[in-house]
UniProtKB/TrEMBL annotation:
Residues 1-145 form the MRH domain. It comes from the Eukaryota. GO terms for cellular component: endosome membrane; Golgi membrane. This is MRH domain-containing protein. It is found in: Endomembrane system.
Length: 180
């Protein structure tokens, strides 16, 4: 049969606050399957009305120095598996086309949703990388629906990966179908 994931539970909406992760003086504002709930203050002060919306921001506000970078564009979202041969391990979601790091490369944001059946109310823990940012997120929502078991059981080979992040209907559901 099909394997399905439902990540709606991770999306933040008003009046909730965005997810934040601090690293080396930087503060990252994050959301899943949508732009951040709010534009960080440092970004709205820097760009005013021209501030772009993004599913993630990399910000700095320290010792009079400020910075705000977009980590991707919500319309570029691409789903995949963490491990093609073991879909039960979890999913990844990548947003690209963020603020340029250099002439050729734009920032990107790649969520690694790691299946952990024990973590029903979890937060992103780690932001790694300098231009291609990887966010590690252990959550029960990364386990395929209906499995409720720890990773490590056998699966058939996969053909097609189809995933949804329907912003209009607020229904981000990732579906991986068995080849017919």
């Amino acid at each position: 049969g099909d394997l399905q994931w439902d990540l709606r539970g991770l999306k933040r909406e008003r009046p909730q606050r965005d997810y934040t992760v601090a690293r080396d003086g930087w503060l990252f504002y994050l959301n899943v399957c949508g732009d951040t709930v709010r534009v960080p203050k440092v970004c709205s002060e820097k760009y005013g009305e021209g501030v772009l919306r993004s599913p993630g921001y990399q910000t700095l506000s320290k010792d009079g120095e400020t910075a705000c970078y977009y980590m991707g564009n919500v319309n570029t979202g691409v789903w995949g598996l963490l491990d093609e041969s073991r879909p039960e391990e979890g999913l990844k979601l990548t947003y690209s086309s963020g603020t340029k790091c250099d002439a050729r490369t734009g920032r990107s944001l790649e969520y690694h949703f790691v299946c952990d059946p024990r973590k029903s109310d979890s937060l992103p823990t780690t932001v790694a990388g300098e231009c291609r940012f990887m966010v590690i997120w252990e959550t029960s929502l990364a386990c395929p629906l209906g499995t409720h078991r720890a990773p490590g059981y056998a699966f058939w080979g996969l053909g097609l990966v189809v995933a949804y992040c329907k912003l209009q209907t607020l229904n981000p559901t990732a579906i991986i179908s068995k080849p017919s």
